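Task: fold both queries, return C-alpha cells.
Query 1:
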Amino acid sequence: MARNTLSRSLHDLGLSAWFGGTLANAVALNAAAAEAGSASDTGRVANAGWDRWTPVNAAAIGAHLIGSVGQLLGNRRRVAEQQGVAGMSALKTTLTAAALGVTAYSRALGKVVSDAGGTPSRSGTKPSKRAKAEVAAAQAKLDQLQWVIPALTGALVVVSSYAGEQQRPSEVARGLAQR
C-alpha cells in the first residue's frame, strides 16, 4: 500500500481548521463582539473577525477537498473491493457537500451583514432593534447556521476516524473476505 501522507495531511489539516475555526467563531467571536462597547461597534467587530476568517476558511476548505480527492484516488482499490469502504466514502461525500452548501449559504448571509457596515448588533448574530430588516433576517439565520457547520464538519472528523480504522490490516482482510 502506497503512502498518502500529503493528501492525508491536506485532508486532516483542512478539515481541522474548517471545524475548529467555525466553532471558535461561533463560541467566542460572536459573543466577544458584544463586549465592544456600543451596538455599532459590536457589528463592526463581528464583521471584521468573520471577514478575516473567510480567506483562511476558504484555504482550509480547499486543502481539505484536495486532500479528499487524493485520499479517494489513493484508496480507490479499497473503495471498490473492501466491504463498507464505499458506503463510508459516500457518507463522507454527502457530509462534505452539506457542509460546503451551508458554508456557502452562511457566507452569502455574512456578506449581507458585512456589506451593511457597522450594523447595530447585540452580538455577532443577534441584531439590535435598530438593525435593518434584511440585515436582521440574515443575522437570525446566521445565529442558527453558525452551529450547523461545526456539527457537519465534526461529523466528518468522526467518519474520517472510522475510515482510518477501516485501514487496519485486520479490517482490510475482513472487508475483502466479505466482498
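Query 1 returned. Query 2:
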Amino acid sequence: SHGPSCGICSSIVTVLIALLGMQVIIHRRSIKRQHLIRQRDGYFQQHGGQLLSDMMKIDRNLEFTLYRQEDIEVATNDFDKNQIIGEGGQGTVYKGFIENIPVAIKRCKGMDESRRMEFGQELLVLSRVNHDHVVKLLGCCLLFEVPILVYEFVPNKTLHDLLHGQDGRCYISLATRLRIAAESSQALGHLHSLARPILHGDVKSANILLGDNLIAKVADFGCSIIARMDEEALVAKGTVGYLDPEYLQSCKLTDKSDVYSFGVVLVELLTGKKPRCLVSIFQDAMKEGTVDELIDEEIINEDDLEVIHQVAELTRRCLAMPGDKRPAMSQVAQELRRLTGLVRQHPDAADDLIAFREVDRSFTGTIDSTGYTRSRTTGTIDSTGYTRS
C-alpha cells in the first residue's frame, strides 16, 4: 500500500536533484562568467584602459572607439586563420567588418611590462594623427590578454608586393615610384614633426600600404611603443635589411633611424631588388660611379637619368653614417616632391595607375588586354604624377 506515496517521494527527490543540478550548473556558469569579467577587467587595467577612458572623457573631440570584446570576436570570426592578411614581428593582422565597415584588426604580440601604463596615453597620441598618407587608428580593445588595435582597411596590398610580388612583377613607372616615395616621406615627416614626435621604428616597403589609385599610406607606426625594442626582438622581426646600424649599436631609436630605413626603401624603388645586402652594394656603386648598372631597367631612360641620379644622391645622404649627417624627414619629403615634378611624363604614364595583377579577390580593378590591372581611376594624372580627383 506504500506504492503511490513512494512513487511521489521518488519523483520529488528526482525533481529536487534535477533542480540542485541546475543550480550547480548555473552557479558554475556564474562563477565562470564572473571570472571572465574579472579577467577582462584585469586586462583592461593592465593595458592602461582606465587612464585611456578617463582621458577620452576629457577630450570630447577625439575620434577613437573602445571596442567591445564581442565586436572583435565577431569581426575576426574568433581570430580565424582564414582572415589573416598580414603577420609581422609585432602581431597578426586580420581583415574584418565592424558595423559593415571593413577594418584591419591587429592583435599585438606582447607588451613591455614596464610601459603598460604609458600604453593608453601613447594610443591617444597615435589616435590624434590625421594625415592623408598615414593609416588611421580607429580604436582599440583592451579586454584581451594582448592589446587589439583597429585600423582603417587599405585595399591593395603593399609596396613590397608591388615591387617583389610573387606572381610576376608589373611595370611601375618612375613617376609612380617617386610619388609613392614622396607621399610616404611626407607621412613620416608629419609623424616626426608632431608636438610629441612619433618615431616609426619599422619603416620598410611592407609597411607602406597602397590604397585606391596606389595612394601610399604608412602603416604600423608607433608599434615601437608596443614592441619591446631590444635587439633580439628586432633581429627576430626579420627586417634586418632596413635597420639603422647605429641603432643596432646603441639601441636608441631616433628620427634619423627612420630616415635610414626610408633610404633603404628608396634603394628598393630605384633598383627593384629586395633589401638584403642591398645597401652596401648601392653604396659601393655610388662610390665607383656605376650606379646606372644597378637601376631597375624598367625606369632607366635617357630623359629621366638626371632625376634618377638626384634621387640616388638623396638616397646616399639618407644612408649616411653617423646618423646626424642624414637629412631630416621633412627635407627628404620636400626634395622628393620637387623631383617628382621633374619626371618627364611618358605617353603610358596614365596607364601606370595599374599596378597589381589581380593579386587577390578583394582588389577592385579590372584586367585589360595587356594583362595589367587598371583601377577605376577617379582622377587624372597631371604633370607632377600626382592624382588629382
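Both queries returned. Flag for query 2: The chain has a mean pLDDT of 81.
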